Amino acid sequence: MPTPDPTPASSLPAHEDHLRALGLPLMIAPATRRRELLARSAGVSAGLAVACTGISAVDRSNDHMIALLERLGPDADPELIDVPAPIVGLLVLAIALWVAAPLVGWLVSKTARRAHPAVGSVLGLVALAALVVVPHLAFDPHDGPTHRTTALLAAGVLAGTYTGLGSLVRWSARRVRRELTTMGPMVARVLPILMLAVLFLFFSVEIWQIMVELSWPRTFAVLGVMVGLTVLLVGISTRDDILHDLRGREPEQLLRRAERVNLVLVPVLATLIQAALFASLVFLFFVTLGWIAIPEITETRWTLRPPDEPGGLLSGLPVSVTLVRVSLMLATFSALNLAAAAASDAAHKERFVRPMLDEVVRGLAAREAYLGARRRAHP
Q: Domain residue spans in the chain?
């Protein structure tokens, strides 16, 4: 069940937790975020320290394996090599550390947030120091992440905690679950009309001939351009809608720059989550349709070459590389089309975008309640 909104008489931490739950961590006063920085970063730092130590264990086992192969010589049969117990033990240790990392991070986070603020800050400082030095102390200094890498990770954890990145990630995860349960009406409304245009492209020989010649870097570059256009379109249209809705509703205390960014970021992320889920559905649809409707001989006639089987994680799937690329292209185009509909179609905007804009108004009300609680706590 959703957590009820805090009342005006609620404690200041209750208002802060409510803002974080709404995806508005930058609405919290900078002084509060600085004061809680170490305690709130303790869990992520501890989890990363354990995970990086696991990487060091894998690197160390790799050193042992290279030394063993050098002793056996180039003529040794890899299938007849008896892997020593230390190498197996290091690999098992690495897997155990990776499995334990999320649990350690969760336990440390809960402990740091429930403890006295000074104790939580000390725990966060210890976890941060562990992230920087433990992966190098547990094994040889040259194994695993470098000192520069762990130091950059520590700086990234502090920056992400201060800007509320963790709160935004948790809000996004809840939003994904929510959108998955409400995708039906949007798919039923948008997909049939979109298919009229996109199906023609899918069965067009030209797009198959274009995609078969593209390398994966060029494919991702084209997809990146379309994703960038989608983000730009959603950002501009959402900002304009918010400014139009909030005209005449200026808050008592003017928004800081970071608060304005956070206020626009929430509906933008919500719309992009919708577009990403819709694109994933379209991608699966076209991969399945291509597998059923386009046999290998047809693809060979279209592309003038035999279909390439996918490798890596996709190895063994009964689809071709070109089919995957075509489906990715059409799925990204569908996401761009959905973003355009959200910006221009009044019916679509009223049904799917309006609830997000209403959440912005709710967020402003939560900010006013939070500021009132701060004035009462710090007169």
A: 36-167, 182-377
